[in-house]
Every structure is written in structure tokens, then in C-alpha cells.
Inverse folding.
């Protein structure tokens, strides 16, 4: 079910993009923490009901760049892992060796999962280190919940994109549906936060299960929300796995 | 080695393969001949387990090609018609990657083939010409000494010199007892390598030919050219062989069996000819019996 050779090759092919996205996201996150620290320590009153550092980070990072940058990585890499190689025909070489379809898709799916996990772990640890370096007053348990929520949300998007990459034989369709659904949810969620009239739009998205302000206020059922997001990831990944195992490949 | 039994895959609009039956014996070089869209690549796709038949069955060494493709691939080499490598690597890196996937450590044969086809394996695949990529793919298909080799349009992109080398390679592998399935629309490579040829038309088997029959064809066609119309007329009045006059030209084509050759020479001795030549019976001629110009 697992091939080291395929895993290493997949890692080599995607390492540069992973490093760029991880570096950019981490840099932006930590720069935002510095900015928030400057704002709060200068004594300026934050707008609205933003009373603490995590609330400020929600508006500046967790609702926008924190979701978007890893999502771009997920869309591009998911497509590269399966659909792009089916579309180009290069998978014909690998699949005429002893490597089974199951081994190929399991190994590549595992790579996607591990690379997102590593990215989120680096993001969380550097953020936590910056909080401590700046001696900021942050509830680390709440911070941990937020970071795990972000991780679960990104995994659910990975499930969507992995599924579309497994189902479609054309890159255009894989990216069109994968990125379309994920970014569509992101946009609907962003729109819903603009006015209360648009609030119901959020119910159409997976982003409803990752609401930073409710986590901060202690109103969120994080266990349930994150379980839903992780279930979406697991179910869609398994569905993609099953489809790829049995589908006709135009190689 | 390969048994294709009533294989049907209907892609609609009369595309696919329909009730196809082929039996390919071990140690044979088997040609699949037909123009683009005849169903050659579809047959191969199912043989490799990439796609599932609507009806029928394909067995390789007794193993079902759809369910048991992983074990079939252990002793299989494949050269696809469209060469697409994963990008951002050199030819050598790709060969090593494929060797790792196949679990082979000894790259002696790969090295020998790289030299034979004059490939610079350190060049980036991205910068390689179509012919160079084709040659790298040929190395990958042969390097692990597979028992069964499937080649889909193998010489597309190769220059005439490399085509010649490729034909020599096939004939060497044939001597080693390999079973080779070669799909092509190029008559010369099939004629010079295959023992048996199946002609496919619109997804159906039209005929299967033993190439020895083509090489030892006992019925010859001769072309006779005449200087003057009256010479042609005189010949036609005396002629005892089946003939066909080329319209508006002073040319006749006659069909003569080998044992009738002396009769022909006696008849020609009495005829004023401009020229006389044999038209060899080729696979192409045999093929054109089944594929009219409208196809």
C-alpha cells in the first residue's frame, strides 16, 4: 500500500512549492503577530469588539491569508498528484510497473496529508514562539484550538481537491471543480461576514465549522466542528481512493 | 501468452473495440495493424489493465488483465504511443526512478541501450526532442528484461537510422524468446519484425496473417509496359492470365502463379514490350484489400 520510491519522488517534485507556501504563510503570520503586538502595546483601542490579540489575528490572518495560502498549495499539489499525470499520460509509466493503483494513490494521498500537517505544525509552533518572545498575553489553549481548527479546515479542502483530482482525467476539470468549490466556500464565507443579511451564506460552506470569534468567546462546540471537518477529509479521501482504484484510465 | 476473448469496449460513435478475439503465443512477435482510430491503443489499454471491458475477457499468462494487472506488470515492458514523462528530471533520473519502482539494481542493460541509441541521459527531459524522449522510453521498456513487451507506435519520432536500430533490437529480443506485441501503422517495421499480424478495422479484427505467407506469396503481379497501342492489343488477344489494363495508359497488370512463370515467358517472347517488372506482394497490398481508399 505504500511505496517509499513514489513518496520520495513526490516529495522532490513538490518540496519547492511547499517551502515557498510554508515560508510565506509563516512569515505573514508572524509579521501579523508583531503588528498586533505593536497595536495592543501602543494603547490604541482596536475597532469594534476586538479586545484581544487573537481577535485581531482573526481579522487579519485566520479569516484571510491563513486559509488562502495553504489552500493554494492544496489545489496545486492535489491536481499534480493524480489528475495532471493522468491528463499528460505520464502515469502510464508508473502504472505498468509492479506499483498498483492502490499503492500509488495511498502514497500520494499520504504525502498530501503529511505535507499539510507539517505546514500547519510549523505555523503553530512559530506563532507560539513569537507570542512567547513578545511576552503577549495569549490563551494558549484557545490558540491551540484555533490552529487545530485551521488545520482541520485545510484538510477538508484537501479532501475536496484530492477527490476531484481522483475523479477527473482532465486538469482543467480537476482544478475547476476543486479550486472552484474550495474558493467558492472561502468567498461565500468572506461575504457572509460583511453584513448580517449575508450571514446565512456561511451555512453553505465548510468555513462555518471554523469560526475563530466563537472559539475565543468559548461558544463553539470545537470537538463537534472539527470532527465534522476531519470526517469530510477522511470520507472524501476514501471516496477518491475508491474511484481511482476502479475507474477507466485514458492512458 | 495473451488471450483476448470477445473483447468489447464501446466508447460510442462506433469508437472502441468490438468482439475482438486474438491469441498471441509465447515467443511470437505479433503486429497490430490499422490506421489511427482503428482500436489498437484501446486494445493495449485494456491489455494493461488501465480500462475495464464492457464485455469479454483479456488474459495474460492466464491472469485477468483488469483484476491481476499488478502481477502481469512484473514481467512486462511497455512503450506508450504518446511519450509524457514527469517533468523536472533528467533522462537518467527517470530511468533510475523506474528501475527503483521495478526493484532492479542491475542497470547493465539500460546502460547498453543508452549507448546503443546514443542517448545523453544527463540531459533534462524538458529539453529533449521527441525522438530523444522516445529513445529514453524504449530503454525503460526493455531494461528489466521483460518476458512480454508491448510497443504502441514505437518508431514514431525516430529518425530512419534509429528506426533501423530499433528493428534490429526487436529482432534480437525475438531471438531471446520474448513475446512482443507491436502496434503500428507503418508497414515496413511490421513486415521486418512480426511473425503474425492482425489487421484491425473500426475496432474489429478483419484478418490475421502469418507473415511467412506474405514473404512466400506464390501469386505474383507483373506490370507490362507497351510502346504502341497495337502492341498492347496483340498481347491482350493472346493473353491467358488474369489481367487488368491501367486506364488511358499502355500498361497491363497480370497475375501469375509461380508454376506458370515459363508460360508467361513464352508468351512475352512473342510480345513487343517497353518494360516488364514484378510488383512484389507486400503487407501493404494485403492491408489495402481490407482498407479501401474511402477509409
Amino acid at each position: 500500500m505504500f511505496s517509499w520510491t513514489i513518496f520520495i519522488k513526490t516529495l522532490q517534485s513538490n518540496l519547492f512549492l511547499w517551502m515557498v507556501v510554508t515560508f510565506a504563510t509563516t512569515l505573514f503570520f508572524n509579521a501579523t503577530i508583531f503588528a498586533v503586538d505593536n497595536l495592543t502595546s501602543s494603547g490604541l483601542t482596536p475597532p469594534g469588539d476586538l479586545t484581544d490579540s487573537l481577535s485581531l489575528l482573526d481579522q487579519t490572518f485566520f479569516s484571510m491569508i491563513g486559509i488562502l495560502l495553504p489552500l493554494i498549495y492544496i489545489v496545486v499539489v492535489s491536481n499534480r498528484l493524480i489528475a495532471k499525470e493522468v491528463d499528460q499520460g505520464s502515469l502510464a509509466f508508473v502504472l505498468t510497473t509492479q506499483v498498483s493503483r492502490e499503492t500509488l494513490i495511498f502514497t500520494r494521498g499520504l504525502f498530501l496529508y503529511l505535507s499539510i500537517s507539517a505546514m500547519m505544525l510549523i505555523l503553530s509552533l512559530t506563532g507560539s514562539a513569537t507570542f512567547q518572545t513578545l511576552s503577549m498575553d495569549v490563551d494558549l489553549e484557545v490558540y491551540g484550538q484555533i490552529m487545530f481548527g485551521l488545520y482541520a479546515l485545510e484538510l477538508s479542502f484537501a479532501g475536496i481537491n484530492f477527490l476531484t483530482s481522483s475523479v477527473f482525467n482532465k486538469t482543467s476539470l480537476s482544478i475547476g471543480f476543486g479550486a472552484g468549490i474550495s474558493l467558492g466556500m472561502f468567498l461565500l464565507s468572506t461575504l457572509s461576514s460583511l453584513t448580517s443579511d449575508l450571514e446565512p451564506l456561511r451555512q453553505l460552506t465548510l468555513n462555518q465549522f471554523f469560526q475563530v470569534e466563537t472559539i475565543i468567546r468559548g461558544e463553539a462546540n470545537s470537538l463537534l466542528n472539527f470532527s465534522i471537518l476531519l470526517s469530510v477529509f477522511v470520507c472524501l479521501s476514501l471516496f477518491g481512493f475508491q474511484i481511482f482504484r476502479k475507474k477507466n484510465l485514458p492512458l | 501468452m495473451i488471450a483476448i476473448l470477445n473483447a468489447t469496449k464501446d466508447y460510442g460513435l462506433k469508437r472502441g473495440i468490438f468482439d475482438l478475439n486474438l491469441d498471441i503465443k509465447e515467443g511470437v512477435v505479433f503486429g497490430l495493424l490499422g490506421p489511427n482510430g482503428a482500436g489498437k491503443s484501446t486494445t493495449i489499454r485494456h491489455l494493461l489493465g488501465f480500462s475495464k471491458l464492457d464485455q469479454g475477457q483479456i488474459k495474460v499468462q492466464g491472469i485477468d488483465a483488469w483484476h491481476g494487472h499488478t502481477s502481469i506488470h512484473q514481467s512486462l515492458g511497455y512503450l506508450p504511443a504518446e511519450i509524457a514523462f514527469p517533468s523536472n528530471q533528467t533522462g537518467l533520473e527517470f530511468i533510475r526512478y523506474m528501475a527503483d519502482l521495478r526493484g532492479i539494481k542491475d542497470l547493465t542493460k539500460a546502460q547498453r541501450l543508452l549507448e546503443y541509441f546514443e542517448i545523453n541521459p544527463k540531459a533534462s527531459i524538458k529539453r529533449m526532442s521527441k525522438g530523444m524522449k522516445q529513445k529514453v522510453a524504449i530503454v525503460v521498456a526493455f531494461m528489466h528484461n521483460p518476458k512480454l513487451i508491448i510497443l504502441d507506435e514505437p518508431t514514431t519520432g525516430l529518425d530512419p537510422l534509429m528506426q533501423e536500430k530499433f528493428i534490429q533490437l526487436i529482432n534480437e529480443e525475438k531471438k531471446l524468446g520474448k513475446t512482443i506485441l507491436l502496434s503500428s501503422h507503418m508497414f515496413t517495421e511490421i513486415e521486418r519484425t512480426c511473425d503474425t499480424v492482425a489487421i484491425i478495422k473500426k475496432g474489429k479484427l478483419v484478418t490475421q496473417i502469418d507473415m511467412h505467407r506474405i514473404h512466400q506469396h506464390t501469386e505474383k503481379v507483373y506490370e507490362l509496359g507497351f510502346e504502341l497501342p497495337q502492341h498492347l492489343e496483340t498481347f491482350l488477344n493472346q493473353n491467358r492470365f488474369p489481367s487488368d489494363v491501367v486506364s488511358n495508359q499502355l500498361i497491363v497488370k497480370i497475375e501469375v502463379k509461380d508454376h506458370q512463370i515459363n508460360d508467361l515467358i513464352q508468351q512475352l517472347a512473342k510480345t513487343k514490350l517497353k518494360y516488364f517488372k514484378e510488383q512484389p506482394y507486400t503487407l501493404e497490398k494485403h492491408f489495402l484489400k481490407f482498407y479501401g481508399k474511402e477509409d
In short: Chain A touches chain B through 23 residues (CB under 8 Å). The two ends of chain A are 22 Å apart (CA to CA). The mean pLDDT of chain A is 93. Chain A is about 75% helix and 0% strand.
